[in-house]
Design brief:
With 753 residues, the protein is α/β, with parallel strands linked by helices. Helix content is 63%, strand content 9%. It has a six-stranded mixed β-sheet. Strands 5-4-7-8 form a four-stranded antiparallel β-sheet, with no helix packed on it.
Length: 753
């Protein structure tokens, strides 16, 4: 999880902004149930009267209200009122007007509730609370002792009534006094409801604004995190050598750069929106529940415990499957990419059904895993809904008894249910994220693995610079072994490629020809010996400077989506139209380019799928020529060309490579017959070095290759020499087979031992 959170560090200012607005949203969200409760309890049941002290009271009611008050209570009561001039009142009745602030009234609601209710019950209500006003001596002021005795007699009755009912009785007293003083109670009730509704609307509007700001900021941060990860991953992958590419596989790198980053981006957005909000609402809801003083907090505790057990059970069952899901996505991508890339071959061999089965197997394996996790998670919402309904039912069941005995009001129960749902929903949000976070954590680990992987081919700390490269390439007893391999692919490779000369490399399939030329631009680094460019080890140059000197044409011609011109300028962005046209002429590509309507502006599809193999190869060669490098490397780049085009291309190429070193890997003798130096590779070793004529005389492997492609007359051999060469080649083949059998027998003997 830490790998997900560390991506948020650069955006801490946005996170603070989100946190502030989430607090504002949560505050408004938590305030609404309280207003709903007030509308029910105060606005509807209590006629909009919030306190037990009347707003205005006649002098008669003023005196009556103090009947059962102790001395200090009377003092507090009288301090809250200010006498009005009777002559200024509409009805000429002497009145007292309430002047106390809201905080004072909140305190007096509890302190003066009992004496006010006793006075109301004794003098105005038909209901008696063991207090008979007629029993009070006329004209005799009750002292504190007498009042205490009277109040002690009715204390049990007061306790039995319940605090909620007692408060309602006090409000009824205040309502009666307001009516006696000429106040329009109904108008006050409507005004209170409008005021409370306006406050709720204002809070809802603030919630809307806060939610919009949080949603925008969370989406922005999530998108920025995704962008940063894509940039880091892509820049890292671009810097990988072939060893790292092979380690991860192309399909896996694509999945990590797309699906995995998308997972993190989505989780980041939801995390900022939900994970931060859920604790705020949950803690706030618990505080609000405690403030209701309903005594039903234990219901919430049971509900939370049930939720946690339920969630942990589901997560424990599904989590192992989540962890392997990403690798299965990799597998599906790998199979899909392989099938789509080789679709023409699949069709040619009629393998559609078999490949469909192979894809279906990978797809079904992923589907089974997803179905398992989805089926487990389908219990989440029904289970949570059941728990929520049970909580609601439990709250109503318990609250009904409390409402009946007068210790709770209906609005309080409604608010309690709402707060309970908020607490449950906060845990539900956290549980949903607890399912998504581990999967995103796996994705983050996979991405971090790519970012943490350092390329084995890097720039030197103190690179050398060459003002003017000549293009001399020297292999000094080079050995190379692929990462993880047990044996060398190349052994003791030693030769020099000089400017103005062509060095050709030929040999049987799998002998290491492509591997050798891949070492020149440092797609891999040598594991033994060294390669020098102009007297310096190529590892002492920066990769950009080294590769700037090389025009590389790979074995498989690769073109990029765009135009023919953009592909020819790939190695030299500032190449003029004349330069790219000249390069196309040399590569024998002009003849098909000129037949197109848009010529050099003709579009090239992704991978060059809209041109033939030979056209693709010629454009790749033209691209290298347009770069005008010091070293040309052609890795079997003439294989798709016919003999006539091949000959014309090599003749034209000789004119532009007079000052450059040319290294050609080829399978055809005709392509390299005029090379200044030919290297014959066999099993990763140079078994022959020289010109065509020299190798015919002293290299049996080269002779075998030559005789398999050219006639004796083409090779300049008479019949007797040809027969001798053929016999010698046959003897070599027999000897090789015998040696192989001997080695095989020795291996079998070792296995038997």
């Amino acid at each position: 999880m830490s790998k997900i959170f560390k991506n948020l560090i650069p955006y801490w200012r946005w996170i603070i902004l989100i946190f502030v607005f989430l607090i504002a949203q949560a505050y408004c969200d938590l305030a609404l149930p309280a207003y709903t409760s007030d509308i029910i309890d105060v606005g509807i049941q209590d006629h909009g009267i919030e306190h037990v002290l009347p707003k205005e009271i006649t002098s008669e009611d003023y005196q009556m209200a103090q009947t059962f008050m102790l001395s200090d209570e009377k003092e507090k009561f009288t301090d809250c009122y200010e006498a009005e001039d009777a002559s200024k009142s509409d009805d000429g009745v002497a009145k007292y007007k309430l002047t106390a602030d809201s905080d004072t009234l909140d305190k007096l609601d509890e302190e003066l509730l009992v004496p006010l209710v006793m006075a109301y019950q004794a003098f105005q209500s038909g209901e008696q609370m063991d207090v008979d006003a007629s029993a009070i001596p006329q004209g005799v002021a009750l002292d504190d002792n007498m009042i205490k005795q009277i109040r002690s007699k009715v204390q049990d009755k007061i306790d039995a009534v319940g605090s909620s009912t007692l408060k309602s009785m006090g409000v009824t007293f205040a309502t009666k006094c307001d009516e006696n003083a000429g106040i329009d109670v109904d108008a006050n009730q409507v005004a209170y409801l409008w005021k409370a509704g306006a406050k709720m609307a204002a809070f809802a509007a603030i919630m809307l604004i806060a939610a919009c700001v949080v949603g925008f900021a969370a989406s922005k941060v999530g998108a920025a995190v995704g962008r940063d990860l894509r940039e880091k991953t892509f820049s890292k992958v671009v810097g990988f050598s072939n060893a790292e590419i092979n380690k991860f596989s192309t399909a896996s790198l694509i999945t990590r750069s797309t699906n995995d980053i998308q997972q993190i981006q989505m989780v980041t957005t939801m995390m900022l929106r939900m994970v931060l909000y859920a604790p705020i609402v949950g803690i706030g809801g618990i505080i609000k529940v405690a403030q209701t003083k309903s005594g039903m907090e234990w219901v919430i505790a049971i509900a939370v415990a049930a939720i946690m057990v339920f969630i942990f059970t589901l997560v424990g069952i599904a989590m192992p499957k989540f962890k392997i899901m990403q690798s299965l996505v990799d597998k599906v991508n790998l199979v899909s990419r392989e099938i789509l890339t080789g679709l023409s071959v699949i069709r040619a061999f009629g393998r559609e059904k078999e490949e469909e089965k192979r894809f279906d197997e990978a797809n079904r394996e992923l589907t089974r895993t997803q179905l398992f996790t989805n089926r487990v998670m389908t219990f989440m919402m029904p289970g949570m809904s059941m728990i929520m309904y049970c909580i609601t039912l439990g709250i109503v069941w318990v609250a009904a008894g409390r409402i009946d005995n007068g210790s709770m009001q209906v609005g309080t129960m409604t608010a309690f249910i709402t707060y309970a749902m908020m607490i449950v929903m906060s845990f539900l949000m956290l549980s949903a994220m607890s399912i998504m976070l581990p999967r995103a954590g796996v994705a983050a680990e996979r991405i971090d693995e790519v970012i943490r992987t350092n390329s084995t081919v890097n720039d030197p700390k103190e690179p050398v610079t060459e003002a003017d490269h000549r293009g001399v390439i020297r292999f000094n007893h080079v050995d190379f072994r692929y990462p993880g391999a047990k044996e060398d692919v190349l052994s003791d490779i030693d030769f020099v490629a000089e400017p103005g000369k062509t060095t050709a490399i030929i040999g049987s399939t799998g002998c290491g020809k492509s591997t050798l030329v891949n070492l020149i631009p440092r797609f891999y680094d040598v594991t033994g010996g060294s390669i020098e460019l102009d007297g310096h080890d190529i590892r002492d140059y920066t990769l950009s400077e080294l590769r700037e000197s090389i025009g590389f044409v790979p074995q498989k011609g690769i073109l990029f989506s765009g135009t023919i011109a953009s592909n020819l300028r790939f190695g030299k962005a500032d190449a003029s139209d004349e330069q790219i046209k000249k390069a196309a002429d040399i590569a024998q590509a002009s003849e098909f380019i000129e037949t197109k309507n848009d010529r050099y502006e003709s579009s090239i599809a992704q991978g060059g799928s809209n041109v033939s193999g030979g056209q693709k190869q010629r454009l790749a060669i033209a691209r290298a020529i347009a770069k005008d490098p010091h070293i040309y490397v052609f890795d079997d780049s003439f294989s798709a060309l016919d003999m006539k085009t091949d000959a014309r291309l090599r003749a034209a190429l000789a004119e532009v490579t007079e000052k450059a070193s040319v290294i050609i890997v080829a399978q055809r003798i005709s392509t390299i017959i005029h090379a200044d130096q030919i290297l014959v590779l066999d099993d990763g070793k140079i078994v022959g070095k020289g010109t065509h004529e020299e190798l015919l005389k002293n290299c049996d492997v080269y002779m075998q290759i030559a005789q398999s492609q050219l006639s004796a007359r083409e090779l300049g051999l008479d019949d007797k020499a040809a027969e001798t060469a053929t016999d010698k080649a046959a003897d070599n083949v027999t000897k090789t087979a015998t040696d192989t059998s001997a080695v095989s027998g020795l291996d079998n003997e070792k296995e038997g031992m």
